[in-house]
Each structure stands twice: as C-alpha cells, then as structure tokens.
Write a structure and sequence with these properties.
Blueprint (H helix, E strand, L loop, with lengths): L5 H8 L3 H9 L7 E2 L5 E2 L2 H15 L4 H11 L7 H34 L9 H7 L7 H4 L1
Antiparallel strand pairs: 1-2
Amino acid sequence: MRNFSIGELSRQSGIKITTIRYYEEIGLLPPAIRRENGRRAYDENDATRLTFIRHARELGFDVADIREMIAMAAEPERPCGRLDAIARKHLAAVEARIERLLTLKAELQAMLHAAPHGRVGDCGILHALSDTSHDHGRLLDG
C-alpha cells in the first residue's frame, strides 16, 4: 500500500524532497504513483530503496555504481563477484584520496611551521602558495 507522501518519505529517510525527485528523474527510485489529488505516493519498498541509496551515497558510491547495485539486488541468486569488484574499486579510490589528503596535511603543517608569525608581508604561507614550482592542485584532483 502506498501510504507515504513525499514529505513523509523525506522526513523518514533524511533526504530532501528535491533529492528524492532527482532520484526518481534519473531512475534510482521508481516513479511514484500519483494519488487522485496528483501528489506522489510511496510505499515501504520505496523507503527501503531510498535508505539504501542514502547509505551508499554517504559511503561515496557514485550514481552509476548505485544503479548497478540496485539492479543486482533484483537478482538475489546471482553471484556477488561484481558487487565485490565495485566495492574494491571504491575502496581503492578512498585509499588514494586518503593518501592525497595526508600529503596535503603534511604540506600545510610544513607551511605553518615555517611561517613567521609577524607581518603579512613576511608570511611564509603566502610565499609557499605563490610558489609555481609546486602543483598544489594535483593533491586534491588526483
């Protein structure tokens, strides 16, 4: 039975109404049934799927991977090798991001320790950030 309004689903899931509509638009969430008054109506399966999507997004999975995982969930007897591969790929990306962030942290700490705390004109941080011999952008873009 479809007994949730989009507002109720939003409150229950912690996901904004605009995001729920977006997930419908891109096919992560099936289109809602419309009540006689034209308002969307959702059921417990929609709430469960939305919780899955929210959790996957919180873990940083991209929309394409979430879409693939949802499709695989519809085939419970299927081997889970592909799911493992998606998780391994994502873990490798997280580990690479952590390494870049640790490098960034070390660089910021070095700037702070090297910087005199006097006048702005003498500030080592401004000089370090102006140094064209380092490509600081690559630390985050990786």
